Fold this protein.
Amino acid sequence: MSEATRQRLLDSAEVFALHAVSAAEQAEIERDLESVDDTARVQFGILVGEIQETLALASVLDAVEPPAGVRARILDEVPRTPQVTPPASTASNVTSMKGHRDRRSTRLRSSLMAAAAAVVVVVGGGVVATQVIGNDPSPTQAEQVIAYGDTQESTASFPGGGTAKISYSREANSAVVELDGVAAPEAGKDYQMWFVEGTPRSVGLVTSAQLAEGSQTVIEGMGGATNFAFSLEPAGGSPQPTEVLTMATLGA
């Protein structure tokens, strides 16, 4: 897989999400999906999903019931409105994916995925403005690690309750740590994390943010570690674990 193929695929996500591709362009996207790695395929899927979700949200939030009588007034105006035949034109109103990619400054990502996009609807002479909150479609570092084809999971239980889920990829040389229901350590103590490869190697202290529900922390430099351990240490941590609380096995 070349970087150019990967970037071309990701740049096609907007038009693909809007079903605005020709048969030839659809075939090109399918070929690219087959040639890229699992990570790029997951990134493409996330981009498409985010765009479609944002459009669906916009369609719900800007739905407004028109005032009574609007339809009747419009139909009454039709016979009195001059009908003009548009001039013939041979220019196509379909922009190819190449043209779409070349116009990065006007790409849909700028409008659809902005932090706040204003949706303005004109109804019966009035203007209704709705703010749609979007988000960045780019996958997080944790999502990228989990998307690797060789990613595995291992779980360990804390003695005081709660669990640690370790999603790890040898190819990415990283692990993603998710804590669920783990209580904060007692005053003057810290939880410390370790990669164990023969001897323990500290990879940092557990922060209060990590103890929050849904938090994912990426730990890089996995190397040949066969276990991931948590210990209870004096505040600030220790050079070697003094009280190991739990340990997750990391398979090959």
Q: What stands out?
A: The chain has two domains: 1-62+106-139, 144-249.
